[in-house]
Design a protein that fits this description.
42% of the residues lie in helices and 15% in strands. It is built from 14 helices and 10 strands. The strands form 2 sheets. The chain has a 7-stranded mixed β-sheet, with helices on both faces. The chain has a 3-stranded antiparallel β-sheet with strand order 8-9-10.
């Protein structure tokens, strides 16, 4: 069977598993004072070619919520796209951990903010009765599978910084964006003006764990205390950090992301000329959104396929992971055509 989130249904990629097993040999210092955590932090500094602060947490909601809380006071606000994960799928986590910072949703084609949308959101009001804008958050890749180009990020960051706002990036699918754009990771983060990145590891094939990367180290003050208070300080930290060594070595993270992206494109190509199926958005990362008649959706579920229809802007969402097989992609496309023809 396939599913809505094969990224999470999938197992651990072999590189991460090997590194995890290696870290399981013997004893090591706790709470991040181990050799694996130090090595991975240094490796991430090499990946981004800058001296950044790195922290590891268990999941993406915690990463985003704690990172945004570190940038805000309770009376501040955060500009996000109306389809952003922080707005639609984190159960109020960013508001909770920031003690009340308000999210300000804004529109934008293909799931992406623009400088104009940001300026419009922060320019609506400036009186003391309205939460003061403090952060712009970008989702890379977006919730509907599109990606921000370096110039798009740079333009938004310049607009944000000119008005005293910080720039946060939800990079749950950051690897897929880097692979899709074929750019240096620095070019779509700190060089473009991003202050802090939540770098998704679980979707890349890790067993668990995300990295919170502060390019502006001053913003990381007391972040370790936030992690501890939120239950995100792993006592056996090496089991969160060590798998990163496996996927960062030899470019495995980008190979796996490129494979997932290629499988998504293959599925999209298989559906592009299928009567009754309409691709809703450009396929630029590892997700495919397709509009299908309701009887077809039911027919696919009856055949054992699992997918969401309420994520993003609607339509059936099919995600591809590091281990998605060509045969499964072809089988899904064929089943869609069969159910469509039978209807």
């Amino acid at each position: 069977q396939t599913c809505a989130l094969p990224i999470y249904y999938a197992g651990i990629c072999p590189e991460a598993l090997a590194a995890l097993l290696d870290a399981n040999a013997g004893h090591a210092p706790a709470y991040g004072d181990d050799e694996w955590t130090r090595q991975v932090s240094d490796r991430l500094r090499e990946v981004f070619a800058t001296d950044c602060d790195v922290y590891f947490v268990f999941n993406g909601t915690a990463a985003n919520s704690l990172a945004l809380a570190s940038l805000c006071q309770s009376y501040h606000s955060v500009v996000c796209h109306e389809l952003a994960h922080v707005e639609t799928d984190e159960c109020g986590g960013p508001e909770f951990f920031s003690n009340g910072s308000k999210l300000l949703p804004a529109g934008g084609d293909n799931g992406k903010l623009t400088p104009e949308a940001v300026l419009n959101a922060i320019g609506k009001r400036s009186d003391i009765h309205y939460p003061k804008p403090r952060v712009v958050t970008l989702t890379q890749a977006t919730e509907i599978g599109t990606v921000y180009r370096p110039d798009e990020i740079g333009a938004i960051a310049r607009a944000a910084h000119a008005h005293g706002l910080r720039v946060h990036m939800d990079g749950a699918r950051f690897a897929n964006a880097v692979a899709s754009l074929d750019v240096d990771p620095a070019d779509i983060t700190w060089r473009a003006g991003v202050d802090v990145l939540c770098f998704g590891g679980t979707k890349m094939g890790l067993p668990v764990g995300e990295a919170v990367v502060f390019f502006n180290r001053d913003l990381a003050e007391d972040f370790a205390y936030r992690c501890k208070q939120a239950g995100q300080l792993a006592s056996k930290m090496r089991f969160l950090s060590a798998p990163w060594l496996g996927i960062l070595a030899d470019g495995a993270w980008l190979r796996h992301a490129a494979h997932a992206n290629a499988m998504a494109r293959r599925l999209a190509d298989g559906l592009r000329n299928t009567p009754g199926a309409r691709l809703l958005f450009p396929v630029e990362a590892n997700g495919v959104f397709v509009e299908l008649p309701q009887p077809v959706l039911e027919g696919l579920r009856n055949r054992g396929w699992r997918f969401y229809t309420f994520i993003g802007a609607g339509g059936a969402r099919f995600m591809c992971s590091w281990d998605t097989e060509i045969e499964r992609v072809e089988e899904l496309a064929a089943d869609i055509r069969k159910v469509m023809a039978a209807g």
